[in-house]
Design goal:
single chain, 362 residues, alpha/beta, 2-enoyl-CoA Hydratase, Chain A, domain 1, 2 domains, 10 helices, signal, Tail specific protease domain-containing protein, serine-type peptidase activity, Tail-specific_protease
Length: 362
Amino acid sequence: MIRLLPALLMAAAMVAGPTFAPPSAMAADDVSADAVAEAYAALLERDYLYPETGKKYADAIRAAIAAGRYKGLSGEALGAAIDSDVNAVAPDGHLRLRVPEATPPAPGGAAPVRRPPKVPVEQAGWIAPGIAFVRFNVFPMDDAVTAEAAKFMVDHADAKAIIFDIRTHNGGGLDQMDVIFPWLFGKETRLVTMATRASVDAEGGSPIAGIASMRMAKGDAGMVAREHWATPNADKRLRDAKIYVLTSGASASAAEHFALAMKHTGRGVLVGAPTAGANHFGRGEDLGGGYGAFIPVGRTYDPVTGKDWEGEGVLPDIAVPPAEALERALTELGVAPAEAKRLSDAHMPSWPMERRKARGAK
């Protein structure tokens, strides 16, 4: 299963590919800041999708170790220092050091406020006559969520339009996409291309190897390319349904994969704001002491242009503030403005719809 976004690595909501022990991983009681930093540097040098950039990341971290920059740091302070050094080399929407959870407060102290985990699927159903609506907050490796997505498509197979809300979708994998796409296409359709660093793929470390919807393809030197394909099912009822996809600056990683697939093929209309610009896929690694990292090992791109969305995001077809995206999609489908506004308010996401700035970014 592909894993695409570090924020969900931290929330344990994202699906991982195989996890490999990093160099010099240490137990929580004897890990040092420099050991964490060196483990991270070694993984970036070995596996980062662009070898030259991975080497530069590692050199920057090792120079900071030699200068004593990380001495005495831990937790968020260490994460911010390392993230800052990495971002100074080359920003990457997926690079963020995971730090141990904060120490519980002393008796009588205020407990940290944490939001509950995101529900993967919200407000699925009919939003207006003939119009189905569903919000995905994540595409997890979870059979129950995949079954829920499949059931949504079956239950709304007579829709004249479907609105997919991914404004608060932060990443995941392909499982739910692969039960949605067969309903929407009338012929086999190439969606996107995904290329993994060849050395990682040769070790069996590609998080997309072995997925049925992925097909081998010719790729760039040093990379192993696979194409994501949609294969139609036997039910033709949704082949001509109008598809709208709501996006925001919080739509990241696997959400952007979904958005690009709809845009590149012309199958869906994107409404909202540019997505987060977190393109690179990869896998989570343990650095010891409760620290972890997400190591990007590949990229996803438009198979026609060769362009990915790192840093820029996938651009909407209809640009409006994310909070107005559902209202606009409904009016495009013929719903009266006042009713569209009422329905939009009733289906407003409770999670942020803004791009999250990376910790340590310049």
